[in-house]
Amino acid sequence: MARVLVTGISGFIAKHVALQLLQAGHDVVGTVRDTAKRDQVRETLVRHGADHTKLSFVEADLMSDDGWEEAVAGADFIQHLASPFPLQQPSDREALVPPARDGMLRVVKAGLAAGAQRIVVTSSLAAVMYHPKHKGDFEAGPDNWTDPEWSAISAYIVSKTRAEQALWEYLDAQGERERATVINPGLVLGPALDGRAGTSLYVVEAILKAAYPALPPISFPTVDVRDLAALHVAAMDSPNTAGQRLLAAADTLTMQEIALILKDAFPAFARKIPTKELPAWLVKFMANFDKSLRSVTSDLGRRRKARTAYVTEKTGIAFRPARDAVISAAESLIEYGVVQPPD
C-alpha cells in the first residue's frame, strides 16, 4: 500500500478522496491550515468506515513554505486538492491567482523533489470551457482552454486557468509532464460526509432554501463527488493517465432542471422550491447592481458539455447521472441539518 499526501483534506472533495484511499488500505497524510480541523476530519472519516491508524496530519498553508517539506516526505503519491473557492467572488479578477497558482507550484515542486511517483492536481472545467467564441451549445474536450483575459469571467475561473497553465509550463520546462495528471471536474454534487460541504453544494442548498424567487438561465456540467474521488484514485498510478487532462462530468443541468429534480424528489420542499427562470437580459441588468450575479453573466445563453468518454476508456470510471448527484446532495444537506424542512 502507498503513502499518499492529500492537500486541503478538510474540503468536500478531499474528504471523499481521503476516504476512498483509506478504504483501499493506503496511508493518508492530510494537510490542514488550522490544526483545529484535524479532529473534525478524523471523526468524519472514521464515522464513514476509515481506519484512523492510517491517517495523519501536517499543518501547511499554500501561501507559505513552512510544513511542505514535512508533508511530502515519504509520499509515493500526492493528491493536490487545496485551492481557494469563495462563494463571493472578489472584484479583482486576479485576486485568487496567487494562492491557486503559487500554492499549487509550491506543492508540485516539493513533491517532485521528494520523489513522488505521480501528482494528481484538481483543476476545474472552469479552466476548459470559458471562451467568448463559444456560444450556444458547446462540447469541450481536453484540448480546449479558457481565455483568462475574457472580461466576463470571474476571479475563480481566472485563478483555475492561470494555475493550470502555470503547472503545465513548469512541468514541460522540467521535463516532468509524465509525473502529473490533472482532473477537471464540473459542478461537484453528491453526498456531503458531514455538515461542512463548503461552496460546492451551495446551488442545491440555495434552491432548497428558496434563496432566490427565480433562477438564472445557466447550466452546469455536473459530476458526483463519489465518481470524482474514484477518478482521483484511479489516476494516481495508471500509466494511461500520465501527463493527461481528465475532464470529469456526467450530463449538463440548468438550475431550473436541478430545481425540478428537487421538487419531484422532495415533496416536503416542493411548495417553496423556485422553478421559474429569469430572462437573460434581466440577469445582465441586475448584475449591474448585484455583485453575486456578475460571475454568471459569462454562462448566459450557453450550455456547456464535457466530452468524457475517453476518461472512462483510460480509467474505467463511468459517471453516474447528474440527477443522482443532485438527490444525494440534497439528502445529505437535510441529514446534517444544513437545510431544514419547511413548516
TrEMBL record:
Which Gene3D superfamilies does this one have?
NAD(P)-binding Rossmann-like Domain
Residue ranges of domain NAD-dependent epimerase/dehydratase in the record: 4-242
Give the domain of life. Answer: Bacteria
SUPFAM superfamilies this protein is in? NAD(P)-binding Rossmann-fold domains
Q: Which UniProt keywords apply?
A: Oxidoreductase
Keyword Magnesium attached: no
> Which family, according to UniProt?
Belongs to the NAD(P)-dependent epimerase/dehydratase family. Dihydroflavonol-4-reductase subfamily.
Q: Tell me what this protein is called.
A: NAD-dependent epimerase/dehydratase family protein
